[in-house]
Each structure stands twice: as C-alpha cells, then as structure tokens.
Design brief:
The structure is a single chain. The protein has a two-stranded antiparallel sheet. Strands 3-6 form a two-stranded antiparallel sheet. Strands 4-5 form a two-stranded antiparallel sheet. A hairpin with a 7-residue loop joins strand 4 and strand 5. The chain contains 17 helices and 8 strands. The protein is mainly alpha-helical and 380 residues long. Helices cover 51% and strands 8% of the residues. The chain has 3 domains: 49 residues; 111 residues; 190 residues, hpI Integrase, Chain A.
Length: 380
C-alpha cells in the first residue's frame, strides 16, 4: 500500500493537529504511542509500522479480505455471504469481549488473546455447542486467510485442536421432540385438512414435502422440466436462494439458481404413488408455467409454504412448525423403517448417514408407545 493509503486507513478523518504540548500524537493498533514534534517524523513512524505488517492492519480488514475472496473464487452464494457477515457482526463487532481484538493489529493478536476472547464469548453469550461451531468456523476461516496473507504467524488449526473446552461450558438446549418433527397422527390431520379445503397450490407444496422430504427451496425452484412425464420421479437441480438487496436497502432479493444446496442435493427423487394424483392436479393448473408452484403467474417463495403450514397448524391447534420440520419427519420415518441407507441418502440428498442421524433423526414415538416398550423390557 502507498503511504497515502496507509495514512488514510490510520487517520479516518485526516492527520490531527498538534496537541497543546506542540507534538503530534497517535496510538498504534498494538497500543504503542507515537509523539513527534516534526510531522514528517510522525508520518514516517506510522508508515514504518504498517509496512512491516505486510499491509494487513486489523481483524476487520482480514475478515473483509477473507469473505470477499470466498465470494469471488470459492463461489459461495450471496445468502451465505450475508449470513457470514451477520455472524461476524454478532461475534466481533457487537461483542464487548472482542473489543481488544478489534483494536489490535491482527499480527499482534496472541493465542492467549484469542483463547480469552473465545472463552468469554461462550460464557457471556451463553453459546450452545451449535453456536460454538459457528464461532469456531468463523475464527478458523479468518485466521487461515490471515496466515496465507502473512498477517499472522498463528497456526489456527493447531490452536483450535489444542483448545480444550468442557461440554459443561455450553448452554444445554433441551428440545421437545414434538416441536422438531410431526407425529403420524398430526400428519394425517394436516393432509386431511388440505384435502378438505379447496385446491391450493401452496398447500400442495406442503403435501409434496411430506411425501418426498424435499427442501422448501427445492420445491420453490421446482420446474416442470424436472418432473418426469409419468410423474413418478423428480430431478432436483434448482433451488431458491435469497439475500439482501444491495441496491434497495431493507429488501430481500429472491432468485432460482441451477444447482442444489449441496453436491448431494443434485439427485433423482422417487415419487411415492400417493403423491402422483397431486402432481397431476398441479399439472392441470400450472402446467403452462415454467415453475410447478406458481400463483397468479408468479413463482411461490419457500417462505410462503412455511407461512401456510403455520396457518394450518394454528387452525388444527397443533404446535407451530416450519417446512424444515417436515423434512426431519421424512428422514426420521426412513431411518425408523430401516430403509436401505443408499436409498435414504439419495432420496433426502445427504452425503452420509451421520448427517441424517445427528441433525434429522428424531424420536417420533408417543409416550404410550415408549411405555409399551419399557413394559416389555423392564419386567421383574
């Protein structure tokens, strides 16, 4: 960077005037104070400090460089870019525990500084283990990029591997299984209610999810060209993405991309026979349009399906749940039924069973069913 760029970075509002003692004064990111009577000497000291650090100055700049690099070369979606920015603001910009890290030159952040920040953040923000994984991923990405740019000599992978954090440090989040999936009796109530109501493209999207486990974004981006003529298979190759509209602040931009959420998401979904009549009815109504789920000529957004599902749950006096809970329901049914692993992973769009078991497989048995099992096993 040029001397002018360095000074512009350090002095956001220009070089300050001399103090009452007749000297120029500033504080460097590492805490060192510079006091000089001569302006040229004052500037030379500042420029020397920054140039010795390869032009990378602070945490914010390393983060900006990292996320811009990922967006430009790794092809992350705009929505992922926005969420990563939000996570950075949450854990660093708006986090009092990060004040010292932000004020320091990036190369001056030590392992002790980083460890204290991490432990304080976990405690003060009452992070769950899932929240810690978000923070860990952010820290790892920033410091790996910083190392490549020679902005630090801290090997973050080794540091994180050696960081011993007790599971007791994380907030324990106990989730009621009934809020994570739908029970069979609830699914029947919902499907009966949809069949009782007048035809609705929105409601048929909910039905499609119950029978296939497809993501709501995949349903929103589903095109008729992706559905076989006999309605027996669906090729998933499009999905809806959304992100902040930079040109119109405060608004969200939606678009369909010609790739799935993950590599495994590109798949052929087998359609159960019970779903075929619904697809045929949709074909009669929206067959002239590009997208299967179209209303008044406009593609239906993924969020609209969740809103409709919440409305149906409210009408039936069921706990409110979103579309993703249907996907978890289908995953759990497949796991509980002992479906062949390859079929299950292909149908759902996961790379391995561990993902399904860890994040999607839920206990869908009622208390009475569990009691019957215990009565048979615990008998003296």
């Amino acid at each position: 960077m040029t001397d002018k760029e360095i000074l512009s970075h350090h002095f956001k509002g220009g070089i300050p005037k001399k103090n009452k003692d007749g000297r120029y004064f500033t504080r460097l990111p590492n805490g060192k104070q510079i006091r000089k009577v001569n302006e040229d000497d004052f500037i030379a000291e500042i420029v020397k400090y920054y140039k010795e650090r390869d032009g990378v100055y602070n945490l914010q700049e390393v983060f900006d460089g990292w996320i811009d690099f990922k967006f430009k070369y790794d092809g992350i979606a705009q929505g992922t870019y926005d969420r990563t920015q939000s996570d950075y603001n949450r854990f660093f910009v708006n986090n009092p525990a990060a004040t010292e890290l932000i004020d320091k030159c990036f190369s001056d952040i030590s392992e002790d500084d980083l460890e204290m920040f991490i432990r304080s953040t976990i405690k003060n923000m009452a992070l769950t283990s899932k929240g810690w994984q978000k923070l860990k991923s952010l820290v790892s990405g920033i410091w790996l990029y910083g190392l490549k740019q020679k902005a630090t000599d801290l090997y973050i992978t080794k540091f994180l591997d050696s960081l011993s954090i007790s599971p007791k440090a994380f907030k324990l989040k106990i989730e009621d299984e009934r809020t994570q999936v739908f029970m069979d009796d609830e699914v029947k109530l919902i499907l009966d209610e949809i069949n009782r109501r007048p035809f609705s493209v929105y409601n048929y999207g909910i039905v499609l999810c119950f029978y296939t486990g497809m993501r709501s974004g995949e349903i929103s981006g589903l095109m008729w060209e992706d559905v076989s003529e006999d309605m027996k298979t669906i090729t998933v190759r499009h999905t809806e993405v959304f992100y902040k509209d930079k040109e119109r602040k405060g608004t969200t931009k939606y678009e369909v991309v010609d790739h799935a959420k993950t590599i495994a998401g590109l798949r052929k979904v087998v359609v159960p026979n019970a779903l075929v009549p619904y697809l045929k009815k949709l074909k009669e109504v929206t067959g002239e349009y590009q997208y299967v789920f179209t209303f008044n000529g406009n593609r239906i957004h993924a969020q609209n399906f969740s809103d409709k599902l919440a409305n149906i749950c409210k009408q039936l006096h069921l706990p409110p749940r979103r579309m993703h809970k249907i996907r978890k329901t289908v995953c759990s049914k497949l796991c509980d039924s002992g479906v062949d692993e390859r079929l299950m992973l292909k149908q759902i769009g996961h790379t391995d069973r561990r993902t399904t078991e860890t994040f999607y497989h839920r206990d869908r048995r009622t208390d009475d069913e569990k009691r019957d099992i215990l009565d048979k096993v615990i008998s003296y």
